[in-house]
Amino acid sequence: MTHRILIIDDEDDIRQVAAMSLETVAGWDVVLANSGKQGIERASSEQPDAILLDVMMPEMDGPTTLLKLKANGSTSHIPVLLLTAKVQGPDQRKFAEMGVKAILFKPFDPLTLARQISAALGWKEGG
Amino acid sequence: MTNSDRISPDENQSQEQKLQSMISALWERSRHTVVERAARLRTAGDLLSDNRLDRATQQSAVDSAHKLAGVLGTFGLPRGTDLAREAEVLFGQPTPPGKVEIERLQVLLAELTTLIDRGPLGPG
What we know:
The complex is a heterodimer of chains A (127) and B (124). With 127 residues, chain A is of the alpha/beta class. Helices cover 41% and strands 19% of the residues of chain A. Chain B has one domain.
């Protein structure tokens, strides 16, 4: 089964590496967004199976984007995984309370990213 | 079913090589952004040494270090991620760092620059 993943990250490099990884290793379809605003629009129109959401973004950050996704009836059901370069912090409990399925950390290994996502979401497959 | 469920180990290896090759090509295209961020950190480090680091430049250095920390390891430079994280902490301190910390910052930024200049060594 091919999954469709929406990657929301303002970093061009990260978007591209993650997309290459998920497409090449797992054969998934990838949709990209470079901001929280664009991500919300794409989530609504593309209805991905999961969203990989960067935490630190200008204008609309990851947590704000997450709240908007969860408040929108057309996107609230889509599982969200946060992607962050912060290793520590009390934020993790707050993110879990906001409905985040998992927190993945940058840097990620492009060869195992799909496996991490699958494991977090309970998908059997994953590259 | 994913690609790895239906292809042989040889094909899997080829898939990995293909991905590594794509990431290497992306590194070459992205290198200038990484170099610019490292240069921003060195400039901020020099200003800090001269006690002339303003708040905006400090925040820019924290942001640049954070971005570098996130991306370098993904491109195969895990040591670069460690150094960038350390720089993020040192630049992000609420109180001005002391002489020892400033010296450490200069050393780690020099190592970071060398690492970025050298680039990822690639697979194998």
